[in-house]
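Thread: TonB-dependent receptor, structure

OP (GT): Posting the sequence first so everyone is looking at the same thing. Length is 807 residues per the record. Can we get the structure tokens written out before standup tomorrow? I want them in the notebook alongside the other entries.
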Amino acid sequence: MESKIFTKLLIFGAMNTAAFMFSQSTENDTITRGKAIDEVVITGNSNPKASIKTSTSISTLKMKDIENAAPRTTAEIFRTIPGIRSESSGGEGNSNITVRGVPVSAGGSRYLLIQEDGLPVMQFGDIAFGTQDQFTRFDSFVSRVEALRGGSASVFASNSPAGIINFITKTGEKEGGSITQQLGLNYKNYRTDFDYGTQIADNTFLALGGFYRIGDGPRKTGFNSNNGGQFRVSLLKKFEKGSFRIYAKLLDDRTAAYMPMPVAVSGTDADPKWSSLSNYNILNGALQTINLQHDRTLGNDGNIFNSDVSDGMHSISKTIGAEFNYDLGEGWKFEEKIRYSANNGQFIAPFPASVSKGSDFFTAANFTNFGSAVYSGTNTPVDMNAYYMKIALFNVKLNNFNNFVNDFNISKKWSNVKFNAGLYKASQNINMDWMWNNYIQEVSDSNARLVDVKNLSGTFITDQGLLNYGMKDWGNLKRNYNTKYDITAPHAQIEINATDKLTIDAGARYDIGKVTGTFSGGTVTYTSRDMNGNGVIDIPEQLVGSNDNINVPVNYRYGIFGYSVGANYALNSKNAIFARVSQGGSASADRILFSGYNYTNNDDPALDAVKVNKVNQVEAGYKLRGAGYFLNTTLFYAGTKEANYEATTQRKTENKYESLGVELDGYYRITKGFDIKAGLTYTHAEIKNALDPTIVGNTPRRTPKFMYSVNPNFSVDKLNVGFYLIGATKAYTQDSNKLIMPGYAIVNPYISYQLMKNLSVSVNANNIFNTIAVTEAEEGSIAGGNGIVRARTLPGSSYSASVKFDF
């Protein structure tokens, strides 16, 4: 196995040797002609500079790149960035994102943070039901997106050892704006984006922008599941020795959350055939239905809590921030960034706890004293040959996810040395209530019906499809989290231009974390209550899941020491080599609560082993630049040690992982009007240690060997046309390494035409060939199953048209 890996790495090395030889005969120099090839980057650098002069791996996406890629969600933007695996099948949030073989063992992005203007949207990327992409929206107010991959992120941000994705917004320094109207052609989507920037006084600039949309997205939910928008404003004042900027954001958006769906799988684990069921299309179907729009449950405060299922992921964020920088003279500079965000909302989505055919589903094993079943609201008996689900309705109220961030930096620059020191201070609230219910629903993508069940006496044991108030099969899950995470992180970086060609940089960061608060709902408790107000205690109301109101105290500290040392050597103006060694970590926030540890004993070795997830990384690479091309090649290694707890499987894990591979990122301008961008990542990953000894030596779940993207683009006169090819090779659904998710390649074509100087039209498509692209699955094998696997796939083909007016 190892010999094959090194053979592949040698092949990549030979490719780059050839590229280096080619560059020696090229006379054009990128210093004079390559501004579009080698731009200045600011993310993850204490001294912004052209990317060829850095020992980091960073990609920049401009507005046009993102528009052409036709992302339907924020996470879909990241699919075209080499090294980043973005499982964007969950909708406008709850996406799983990781970098370079670092595992996805929990929902969200534990090892990568999303930033807006250099500060994190959330302090942790994997908060259950409150992931950072839920509170992030891309719109035309964004100037560009920078994606830093690798270990240098360990010293520039807390809880992001594998990478940073930074949304950099407009400041108004460029006069003008735009209005873009987008319309879904084969799905309901109506969206308007706008932005405007102008100078309002001497060296004073105003920018504002945002979006609003309404529709039901690329999957059929039966109602307007996407409804909301965002508004942002920025005021910048520049003066002789610095600048001051203040900005604000208001986000209030409702979008559908897509959970795993019933998928038909035949064949064997090693050679499975994935397909849609006869009455459920996995490419455009959704578990949401017009027949389940209202949910009534018992709140953790003891009161009845009513919810609208069409709210889905309801994200509310009210943000105000400021930036100040000043040149103190004699090489000294001061920079301050500060932001406060008031975040709250709700997450409500159906999850299939179990799926089977009616003849297997409606039995005494699942329903005590089963008598009969009818479609809710009718006397029509169910079809025993159809499929049915026990739905776990994830209903989570995000009470308080507020955060505060302050990053203070001071730097000194000598002739060949720049030193930066700073203090990062932040706090993050995690206050949420889990209030889940259990329903019975048919498997259908067209207004799926709820099912009511009668016992042998003819008495309903369900109420309009509701089986249990609470999740009885999973131990109730009436939880409350109310914790606060306080972070203090001194950090420092130094950069030395040792020679004209050699640059050495080093940095260190120490996160001092303090966690306080409580959580409750750890024991199973039930009460009897008339939930529907009919004056009778019906069977589902005899055991209403309730919070135990036993507040478990949380009071512990953690520390994360991160460092990164890198060197960049410029062979000439077109070639450079670099290397880096890094260590970092990410704190386990809510993911380790309810796992049985002593959360008030800092000396408890069991808690100490799980409260920080650690990542060690080594990377080395080669950068090639030319007048019309570039190629970045990075060899990487990552070792990860982490702990996790999954609500859907009720399993606790403590694993060690290792991965190594190579990442290619390239661009070539073939002619004036034709160019191509491409990225390729090869990863060999292995589980080195685990609580479950049977998975040691296996490949971590959902980790493909190869990921790739290719973007040919052709422009002539007023016409621009091209496509994105995005794909991955096969991967295992679970760490047991049995059931395979097949490889896939999806094609996203686009075409735009400039009608006049300031007016353009475009048509974009996503997954034009309706490729079945499975991104995750609950089951680890089809052996002994019923031919149904619960999985998430990328949406099928969707087409949109837009008109953009620039002014």
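GT: Both are above now. Quick notes for whoever picks this up: The helical segments are 2-24, 30-33, 63-69, 153-156, 358-361, 539-542, 605-608. The longest strand covers residues 332-357.
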